[in-house]
Amino acid sequence: MATPISAASAYANIAKLAPSSPLSGGEEGGTSFSSMLKQAIGAVNETGQKAEMQTRAVAAGKANMVDVVTAVSETEVAIDAVVAVRDKIIAAYQDIMKMPI
């Protein structure tokens, strides 16, 4: 199960990827939403690969089980955060589609 510390570190990592101002999402002033999303998904992928490497190392007898559990928990929290963002994007899209013209 994810600990509050791993959740906080996952959200801090995602916050580092966000632009400094919510209004600077344009191409000229900062990063675009799509590039920010790609960076966040890349960070989640990197976290997952780290957990996989730790799992392989423990299977080979070269790592500590606590490190594996920590890495897997961090990956789980990161994936949960990405899923939550995805759900919000889908809900916002559905709300926009329901608006009368």
Write structural notes for this entry:
The chain is mainly alpha-helical and 101 residues long. The protein has one domain (4-98). Helices cover 74% and strands 0% of the residues. It has three helices and no strands. It is elongated. The N and C termini lie far apart (46 Å). The model has no long low-confidence stretch (mean pLDDT 80).
Q: What count of structural domains? A: 1
Which spans have pLDDT < 50 for at least 5 consecutive residues? Answer: none
Number of helices: 3
Distance separating the two termini:
46 Å
SSE string, helix = H, strand = E? HHH
What proportion of the residues form beta strands (DSSP E)? under 5%
Helix content: over 70%
Mean pLDDT: 80
Number of strands: 0
Radius of gyration: 17 Å
The gross shape turns out to be: elongated
Largest sheet features: none
User: Helix/strand-derived class?
Assistant: mainly alpha
Summary, kept brief:
This protein is an all-alpha fold and 101 residues long.
